[in-house]
Specification:
The structure is a homodimer of 429-residue chains. By secondary structure, chain A is of the alpha/beta class. The first copy, chain A, has helices at residues 15-22, 26-34, 41-54, 60-66, 83-98, 154-163, 209-222, 237-252, 266-277, 291-303, 321-324, 337-352; strands at 73-77, 103-107, 132-134, 140-142, 167-171, 189-192, 204-207, 228-233, 258-262, 285-288, 313-317, 331-334, 390-392, 417-419, 422-424. Chain A binds a DNA duplex (16 and 16 nucleotides) through α2 and α4. Chains A, B: Residues 13-67 form the HTH lacI-type domain.
Chain lengths: 429, 429
DNA sequence: CTGTTAGCGCTTTCAA
DNA sequence: TTGAAAGCGCTAACAG
């Protein structure tokens, strides 16, 4: 009947086949898919019928070419190996879905080892820690700092550029940010878990490390600790910022500052821990730049014969699942990645559609609003219901829009959003 | 000078702008990029000149539409949260790069929580373990088995379908495999770290769990262990297969089989470990389905007052970085993910180009061939150099092609490739 | 409401 | 070698 029609290589049905089969013009078929309401009931039925008799599926690529832009939102993952990023991506994706937008996740990877010279020798670059590199034996060791010369994959960027997503969510620091400029300049971009590159007008959403550090100090001093050391400072921007936050807290509280330099790796934390354990007036507590380094500190302390947490309390950042393991049980700061992802997504949605109206798309039953505490949110979203502390980074901007709130502001502005992290207390401190 | 030309939304230069600027036809510009040799030197120069004066970059999408297929290879990641997959993806990507092919990584994610009913209630589905789900407090817990209803993201698949990659590498088990059938039927597909779906003609490359289990038994019996228990069996196909491998080894060696059911999570391993610790003739060694479960076993044993490894030796599978942490130090089977990724990539390349010739693409200086041991491979590839044990899975197929070997066989066949894993001995056993 | 007409940016015959 | 022209599959005016 219908039969072998166009679609050059593949035997796929094209819009023309459908039009022929239904006895209408291609234009109408197109319309029937895009805006069914504007097509008469009879034809619509005939078209839809023909379409699925032929197994027609509109061609993504052709559509994007013709329509001068696609309907999806691009999520660009800077590093596949950082588990925090995966969490953020998932949360963001869910948020998009809930609003009838759909997102495509693409990932960059490390450059070929024999490739061109490292772009950013010392800047592993992720927020949230966890630069990864090769350890001995080819085992991938998160946090190791060596040779972290990752570049934003040109091809991935090119794909996004040409597919013209409605917006782009960049998760983690992307080295060659210049490439992003290939996007149509009007394309909204939001960074998550990364500071947006200097000079960039794009907002970033990330955990508030200062607040996290304060939480840690409160907790530790509350337990009587007076000599609190910091392990970290190396390995990237995030590490540096956490170090600064530490110094600020120590100073503000009139406490001595004691720093053992380390990056995000366990090895590195181990060395720093050993160093600290040997000190004469030994610190009674240590704050590590991330869980992995904290675990290294624990190991070193144990090895040095210290009892944990009696002789040395250890706390860290990130609340990766490591921290929750029975044998580790690490007190740590939860950056609330899901929240970061969700807010970053909201931010982008707001920029795309300042009215904040929930999108048409597929009307989903459970479509909830961030402001209205959903009735029976499923477990994955449980932690949203708590009132969300929020603060803004950049100085100048007026503290305006509350996302999903009653009166969203027209111009989203470009201020960063800092998500208030949470203290997770476990045995280690 | 040149100025504001076409390219509707964006101000990007199109092939037409270049043609105009260079005073030639668009067809020639196209040719100048695709096959420079067939264009006269003068025009070529003029074209290339004009092109970069205008900052021209060919449009990916338009090209793929016009040329009936793209030049990239698609890497489809089934789960962002499984670190093993990231390793495989990286290795594969490098292999592709080395052969002048380039790959695009796209990821599926979990379905929205409030979405349609779970597809595969009990089938988390990844090879290599590490299904992830929400634990208490919204923390992402790798290995937890609950609600792992991930679906292969339709949009991602649609994108691949329409972009028409030359080939697709699927990493991990993808639930809705039917969607892949949307690809032009001639598109070669290779699965990595997953058994290819039944009835599928696509080969899969994965670690040989039977061999790994044998390695573990050899090691443990060599240390005098006679009562070796297994923790695992639940949570997915891989878990089941490892259980079977365990049973087979135990039987073959005339040893008693003792199984405590668990999935890939630490929690689950903990429970199983507690169970085993309480048994009367206690096992002297435990093999866990993966590192995480093994860590759970360690924790439970410790809690039960057992000394490790004297009272209970623990070994596992996967060699994630966890196993290498000082405080964990777990003897484990390294699935050699990088090798899996590399071989899967080779497999695909072979299918794409049976002559094994290195592709034209951008001619890269360092382009090495799998068969020719490259001179100074950088560290990331260090472990390739060792002679690679290899065996084949599927029964019927003739044992033919050695990848990258001297005489590659014309028809690649569809047999699975099993990569021989490696035993990593640490303190725990 | 519906058909027609132009393209999106690029590749590819096919002649010249 | 080079240019002209005809599409890839779809959308977007614009008339009717």
């Amino acid at each position: 009947m219908s039969g072998m029609s166009s679609a050059r290589g593949t035997g796929r049905a094209t819009i023309r086949d459908v039009a022929a089969e239904a006895g209408v013009s291609t234009g109408l078929v197109s319309l029937a898919f895009k805006d069914p309401a504007r097509v008469s009931a009879v034809r619509r039925a005939r078209i839809l019928d023909a379409a699925d008799r032929l197994g027609y599926r509109p061609n993504f690529v052709a559509r994007s070419l013709a329509a001068d832009g696609s309907s999806f939102i691009g999520i660009l993952l800077s590093d596949l190996h950082n588990p925090l990023f995966a969490e953020i991506a998932d949360a963001a994706r869910q948020e998009f879905d809930a609003h009838g937008s759909y997102a495509l996740i693409a990932s960059a990877t490390k450059a070929r080892p024999e490739g061109r010279a490292p772009e950013n020798p010392e800047e592993g670059g992720q927020a949230g820690s966890g630069a990864s590199a090769r350890g001995p034996g080819g085992l991938r060791v998160p946090g190791a700092t060596g040779g972290a010369d990752r570049i934003a994959d040109e091809q991935v960027i090119a794909m996004f550029r040409d597919l013209r997503p409605r917006g782009v969510l960049v998760i983690g620091t992307i080295a060659d940010t210049a490439l992003l400029s290939g996007l149509p300049s009007a394309t909204p971009v939001v960074y998550a878990s990364a500071v947006s590159p200097e000079g960039s007008a794009h907002p970033s959403v990330r955990a508030d490390d200062d607040a996290g550090m304060a939480l840690l100090f409160d907790h530790l001093t509350g337990r009587g600790h007076q000599r609190i050391a910091f392990v970290g400072g190396a390995g990237g921007e995030v590490s540096r910022l956490r170090l600064e936050a530490y110094l600020a807290q120590a100073e503000a509280r009139g406490m001595p500052a004691l720093v053992a330099r380390a990056d995000f790796s366990e090895q590195s934390g181990y060395r720093a821990g050993a160093e600290l354990a040997g000190l004469d007036p030994r610190p009674t507590a240590v704050i590590a730049v991330n869980d992995l380094a904290g675990i290294g500190v624990q190991a070193a302390a144990e090895q040095a014969g210290l009892r944990l947490p009696a002789d040395l309390a250890v706390a860290a950042f990130d609340n990766t699942y490591l921290a929750g393991l029975h044998r580790i049980s690490l007190t740590t700061i939860d950056p609330r990645n899901a929240e970061v992802g969700r807010r970053a997504a909201s931010r982008l949605l707001l920029a795309l559609d300042p009215d904040g109206a929930r999108h048409a798309g597929l009307p989903r039953d459970g479509a909830r609003n961030a402001s209205a505490p959903g009735a029976g949110d499923s477990d994955a979203l449980r932690d949203v219901s708590s009132p969300i502390g929020e603060s803004r980074g950049a100085a100048s901007a007026p503290r305006s829009a509350r996302f999903g709130g009653a009166h969203a502001v027209a111009s989203p502005g470009t201020e960063d959003v800092l998500v208030r992290p949470e203290l997770i207390v476990r045995d280690s401190a």
